[in-house]
């Protein structure tokens, strides 16, 4: 770690809460788990049951921030897991801001950010904690993510840059996944049976050292969805810490499964808005070139989905709507 790490101010948020958090509930143990939910009723039971089993050997608390769900998420948590600290937001202000709200209620040594659409494979928490305790240079680490069928999700990545985005835009990373040049962004050519040092890893399961957060700052709440963990890992790296991906810790991520239907118009728009913000913040001189690439990328996908429209009208309509609005964002 560097002797004089950069110190960036935390991005605190002020979201109104339905439930008062007493001083006794503010966690001072080893691990705080923070989960952000939005209409996650179909996922949350499996997530919490597997998580609580894996945490049983450690002093911990679980803090859930619900972003104004309209399903049974909140009522289920209240009745089935009354010991969990539940913060109910009246509006959906995004993942980053919800995480920052929960962080204000926790002062544990480590923080585990976890998506509700996950299932913890036994031993994950133990592996993550053991690695952190042994490697003081580690600011954040992630487990190996698996699809529901047991296949690998590529979760350890290099930071976004024009070359990587260009490769993705024209499907070169998929055509040449083992190429060190075209596959660099998702590191698809790397042996993942060993511990990997990466630029950033996915926020669906991110285990972070509290001391590192204090130095680098919390999530930037200007990100509503996507790239908030990328931004955080960049600031952790700038503060002198390393980011790792562990093969011995494993997690099933249901929402990360490859499905065109999951990436709807709303997510397409949020993805590109966050990517634009990331470049404006960290690489403003490259923003004009990013817009040129993403304009071409969106146009190509509009053409492709127009050809697929007769076979899959509903999904195609979502894609066309999303990428059509991205074209406007490029101007």
Task: Write up this protein.
Keywords: Glycosyltransferase, Transferase. This is Similar to glycosyl transferase family 2. It comes from Kuenenia stuttgartiensis. GO terms for molecular function: glycosyltransferase activity. The chain is an alpha/beta fold and 331 residues long. It has 2 domains: 192 residues, Spore Coat Polysaccharide Biosynthesis Protein SpsA, Chain A; 70 residues, no CATH class. It has 11 helices and 12 strands. Strands 1, 2, 3, 4, 5, 6, 7, 9, 11 and 12 form a 10-stranded mixed β-sheet that branches. The longest helix has 22 residues. The N terminus is likely disordered.
What fraction, in percent, of the residue positions are helical? Answer: 25-40%
The number of helices is 11
Q: Major beta sheet, specifics?
A: 10 strands, mixed
Please state the average pLDDT score. 89
CATH class of the largest domain: Alpha Beta
The assigned CATH architecture of the largest domain is Alpha-Beta Complex
Strand content bin? 15-25%
SSE-based structural type = alpha/beta
CATH topology of the largest domain: Spore Coat Polysaccharide Biosynthesis Protein SpsA, Chain A
Q: What is the overall shape?
A: globular
Protein name: Similar to glycosyl transferase family 2
Keywords: Glycosyltransferase, Transferase
InterPro entries: Glyco_trans_2-like, Nucleotide-diphossugar_trans
Enzyme class: transferase
